[in-house]
Amino acid sequence: MSTNAKAKAPQTETKPKEVLKKVEKSNTEVKDLFNPTAESRIKRAENFKILADKFKFLNDKNDDLQKFIVSSDGTKEKIVLENAQGFKFEVSNSNVIEKVLDVVKSELQNITNEAEKEVLTFQI
């Protein structure tokens, strides 16, 4: 005995007002790109400045991390973590520090790459 039950796809109700708002917002964004006003260009320039500052900050942090890695001799390094209540956790084992730095370097590079993409694709 076999049953052929068909799973129904969940239906989401879209209210006409919500669709209209999305369409109006899209139209406004398209109009701003093709026929920008002075005010919209200034706002977009300000947003670009924020993105550029973020990218520069992340690049500086990458440089600082690279300097830390290059200057380490494997004997005197330590990593200290401190929370808002003032509790501290300190690590001085070189193997643990190396692993932590690898994770930090990888994550920082990923974030920097994303910021760079945002800067390169941003349109004023």
Describe the structure in your own words.
The chain is mainly α and 124 residues long. It has a domain at 45-121. The protein has helices at 16-34, 38-71, 94-121; strands spanning 79-82, 88-91. Strands 1-2 form a two-stranded antiparallel ribbon. Strand 1 and strand 2 (88-91) form a beta hairpin. The longest helix has 34 residues, at 38-71. The radius of gyration is 25 Å and the shape is elongated. It comes from Formosa undariae. This is Flagellar protein FlaG. Residues 1-20 are annotated as: Disordered.
Keywords:
single chain; mainly alpha; 3 helices; 2 strands
**Oligomeric status of the shown chains?**
single chain
What count of helical segments does DSSP give? 3
Q: Helix coverage percent of residues?
A: 55-70%
Low-confidence stretches: none
Biggest sheet: strands side by side, in what order? 1-2
Molecular shape: elongated
Strand residues, percent: 5-15%
Biggest sheet features: 2 strands, antiparallel
The separation of the N and C termini measures 64 Å
Structural class: mainly alpha
**SSE order, one letter for each helix or strand:** HHEEH
Task: Report the average pLDDT across residues.
Answer: 83
What's the β-strand tally?
A: 2
Radius of gyration: 25 Å
Region (Disordered): 1-20
Protein name: Flagellar protein FlaG
